[in-house]
Design brief:
Layout lengths: L5 H10 L7 E2 L4 E2 L7 H22 L1 H15 L5 H13 L5
Antiparallel strand pairs: 1-2
């Protein structure tokens, strides 16, 4: 791994809200993992639930974005009305993963 990436990785881990404090010696990045206590487990569960909720909410935006993109393509005459109609139907049929 390129040692010049270590500061960015260190910063990302510290900003991750996981309570981890990496040790960067310039060549290796060590991330001590604290023992899993009941309190720490509850903190991690809260963090995972927060991240998961953000992904669930973010997923709802994809069909809207696809619909807007299709309408723009139609307006720009890049696709026909039939192509837009079929693509809109396809977007609505695709299951949302959760």
């Amino acid at each position: 791994m390129d040692p010049s990436l270590l500061p960015a990785i260190d910063k990302a881990i510290r900003a991750s809200d996981l309570g981890l404090n990496p040790v960067n010696d310039g060549k290796i990045l060590r991330v001590p993992i604290p023992p899993l206590t009941e309190e720490r487990r509850k903190e991690l569960v809260k963090h995972v639930n927060k991240v998961l909720e953000g992904h669930r909410n973010g997923g709802a935006q994809y069909p809207r974005d696809a619909n807007e993109d299709l309408k723009k393509l139609l307006k720009d005459k890049a696709i026909s009305e039939d192509e837009e109609k079929h693509a809109l139907e396809d977007v609505q049929k695709r299951p949302m993963s959760s």
